[in-house]
Automatic annotation (TrEMBL):
Record SUPFAM superfamilies: Dihydrofolate reductase-like
Species the sequence originates in: Nonomuraea wenchangensis
Protein name: Dihydrofolate reductase
GO terms assigned for molecular function: 5-amino-6-(5-phosphoribosylamino)uracil reductase activity
Superkingdom: Bacteria
Amino acid sequence: MRKLIVSTIMSLDGYVEGPGRNVMALPMDGFFDEHNLERQRAADTLLLGATTYMGLKGYWPAVAENPAVSPAVANTPDVADLHRETGQRNNEMRKFVVSDSLTEDDTAPWTDTTTIVRRADAHEVVAELKDQPGKDILMFGSRTLWNDLLVAGLIDELYLMVGHAVLGEGTPAFSTGPVPPLQLVDTRRRDGSDNVLLHYKVVNRDA
């Protein structure tokens, strides 16, 4: 059985979005970008909520073609290859988006690699995906979806990058559902970054 992995960033006070659902309030630095590419290299499938899917779709295809359109590359040109590879992998990876509102018309230019899953079918589809051969299944963002799957016992590991920003309010990382026990596997830092990466394994409550 392959693993379902969540990779997300949150503020020091536990928010994945700032006021007004502003994700740009979080310190998404080079360490964050490098880690996400590392996780992509270990995966062959993306599982996303509709908001995250539309955000990635609206950004990465253009960066794959020309990394210079990325503000991060404009500020630091030597990360162009990292952003190009990230964009290319986002284009090529198989994608499942959980939504009751999206249609095939909403998926271009990712139509050929996208499967839309209705919310009522999400748990069954995810369980089936985990039973298939392959590399990791990876989730970026998608806070509502991964919290639901976490409570349902379908998430295997969490990579939580804790940023140095204190937002005061916003969208909390965890919902009010009963979170299963988490076991700390590793912590990482990178020189030049004030962010800390926490890697947790979700403990199987039936084990």
